């Protein structure tokens, strides 16, 4: 989209240059058209500046999205590690419970 708008801006600039040339050829009769030609060129320059700003903003957004993506992936890895640790703790607790049940049976027989 930016390329398309950039092409339109370049073509508008050429149109403004051609209009300026034609207005100078027309001499006194082309003075009013000269003002239009200047405004067309201003519009073209303004469009080009806007394109640069939009491009900079899009690059910044792209960088931010990539940073967020990296942080999400990092968080997922940490979550998976924590889930694995919780499973280990759960297994250890179940083992302790089984051992406690055995000790309870032995104690009741004594």
Structure description:
There is one protein chain. The protein is an all-alpha fold. It has a single domain, classed as Helix Hairpins. It has two helices and no strands. The chain has helices spanning 2-25, 31-109. Helix 1 (2-25) runs antiparallel to helix 2. The radius of gyration is 37 Å and the shape is rod-shaped. 3% of the residues are buried. The mean pLDDT is 90.
Short précis:
The chain has 110 residues and is mainly α. Helix content is 94%, strand content 0%. Helix 1 runs antiparallel to helix 2 (31-109).
Keywords, please?
mainly alpha; 2 helices; 0% strand; rod-shaped; Chemotax_Me-accpt_rcpt; transducer
Distance between the termini: 85 Å
* Major sheet summary line: none
How many beta strands in the DSSP annotation?
Answer: 0
Number of domains: 1
Helical residues, percent: over 70%
CATH topology label:
Helix Hairpins
